Structures are given as C-alpha cells and as structure tokens.
Amino acid sequence: MLSAFLNFFLLTVIHDVVPRQPLPDLTFMIIPQQKWAWSVGDVLSTVSSVMAFTVVLLHHERWVVLRRMFLLGAIMYGLRAVVLGVTFLPPSFHDRDEICLSQVNRSAMYGMEIATSTDVHIVYNSCAHFLIVMEDAVT
C-alpha cells in the first residue's frame, strides 16, 4: 500500500513539474510517432498479465508462488517510486496534451475554495497513471 501511494503521489507531482518538450532523439527524428503503438502495448500487457496469473493459479503450490509474486511486485513498485522521485525526464512523445491531462494552473488554486466546492476522486488517464482530479461540485 505504501509503494502504491508513493507512486500515485509522485506521478501527480511529476505531472506538473516535468517539461513539456521531449528531449532530442535521433530515432524519434527518423521514425515518426506511431499512435497505434499505445493500444498494442496495452493489449500485450493485459494478455501477458492474464497468462501469468493463469499459470500461477494452475500451479500446484499456487499460494507460495502468489505470495512471492506479490512480494516481488511490491519491492519493484517501491523501487519504481524511488526512481520516479529522483528523475524528472520529459516524455518521449510529442502529442502530450492529446494523451495526458493538462497541467494545473497553480496560481488559480485556493485551498479553502477547493476544499468546499470540489469533488476529489482518482482517475486513470491514458498515460498509464492514476491522477487525483478535482471537479467543481457547485456548477
């Protein structure tokens, strides 16, 4: 739970800190951005996750394997939070505003106004992270 909270928190903070323009890269200059690659990557990740859990559930010692798998996953997620905390690299793609939510205007944020007139919930956006989104409950 701590690893998940740290990852979600750091992704929310980094989303507003990281620069908008990607770093210059020779490969990305030669090969144009492929919009279909996002969908293919999501499908392949889902298929491999389902296959892995199927293999674990059909294993003779499934509880031992499942416990070890969750322990390794938690350790890797915790280390991911450490890496996210020390590196702020810009995205490798150009159409960040199409894919991600826009950055927050920090000068327009007032604490009491937000606390009394907004509805806070967590949303999954297509950048593969969870972000805390605030919607105005008054209007």
From TrEMBL:
Keywords: Membrane, Signal, Transmembrane, Transmembrane helix. GO terms for molecular function: ceramide cholinephosphotransferase activity; sphingomyelin synthase activity. It comes from Cylicostephanus goldi (Nematode worm). It comes from the Eukaryota. The chain crosses the membrane at residues 36-58, 70-89. PANTHER family: PHOSPHATIDYLCHOLINE:CERAMIDE CHOLINEPHOSPHOTRANSFERASE 2, SPHINGOMYELIN SYNTHETASE. Residues 1-19 form the signal peptide. The lineage of its organism: Eukaryota, Metazoa, Ecdysozoa, Nematoda, Chromadorea. InterPro entries: Sphingomyelin_synth-like (IPR045221). The keyword Transcription regulation does not apply. One of its GO terms (cellular component) is endoplasmic reticulum membrane. This is Sphingomyelin synthase-like domain-containing protein. The keyword Ion transport does not apply. One of its GO terms (biological process) is ceramide biosynthetic process.
